[in-house]
Amino acid sequence: MSNQHWRIEELKHHSKDISWLDASEVSQAYKLVGLYDSKSHLGLNAHTVGSVERLEFDEDVSTATDWLRPRISGIQELIVVFGGDDCFRCSGNFFVENWSDIFMPARDDAMAYSPESSIILFYCHENEFEVGQRIIFD
Predict the structure, then answer these.
(1) What local confidence, expressed as pLDDT, does residue 4 receive?
(2) Residues 6+ apart with CB under 8 A from 38
(3) 68 — phi, psi (to 5°)?
(4) Rounded distance, CA 3 to CA 5, Å?
(5) Average pLDDT over residues 87-94
(6) CA-based nearest residue to 27, from 8, 4, 6
(7) Is 0.85 surpassed by the pTM of this model?
(8) Residue 37 gets which letter from DSSP?
(9) Torsion angle of C-alpha atoms 13, 15, 18, 22, degrees rounded to 10
(10) 8 C-beta neighbours (distance < 10 Å), count
(11) In angstroms, what CA-CA distances link 20 with 26, 38, 80?
(12) Residue 97, Cβ neighbours under 10 Å: how many?
């Protein structure tokens, strides 16, 4: 069973709020986040992402939810990228209100970006978020 299949099963209770990307879309999303992922540490790449904000939090997820809300809630579409096999689309509001259920059971590292704006996000399983603005390459 591939990673995507177990993840789809794990997140099936959110099926009305998320849509899984097809193979072509996954490939494009994974390639795009690779431009903004740091190659030297867990987090965003300071050379390709500007205005990076960072939050480290303890097990109290409400701190992170409150921090994410003004940064992500208004986004209509967010692409969440777990790796080269599994990505889904959701609203920013859904993401903010459900991120702990999406990430914490599997203790994933993941990235998310908005196709409608330059925002990009990195989640580290060690209870850290980074949010910044992608530098758009032509």
Answers:
(1) 52
(2) 44, 45, 46
(3) -70, -35
(4) 5
(5) 96
(6) 4
(7) yes
(8) B
(9) 130
(10) 15
(11) 9, 25, 9
(12) 15
If you write DSSP's letter for every residue of 2-14 in order, what string do you get? -HHHHHHHHTGGG
Question: Which two structure tokens, joined as six digits, stand for 99?
Answer: 């991120």
CA 45 to chain centre: 15
Burial class from Cβ neighbours inside 10 Å (0-12, 13-18, 19+) for residue 70 reads exposed
Quick: pLDDT tens for 67-82.
999 999 889 999 999 9
Q: Which residues is 4 bridged to in the sheet? A: none
Helices (H), the chain: 3-10, 23-34, 61-72, 92-103
Any idea how long the chain is?
Answer: 138
The answer to whether the CB of 113 falls within 8 A of the CB of 79 is yes
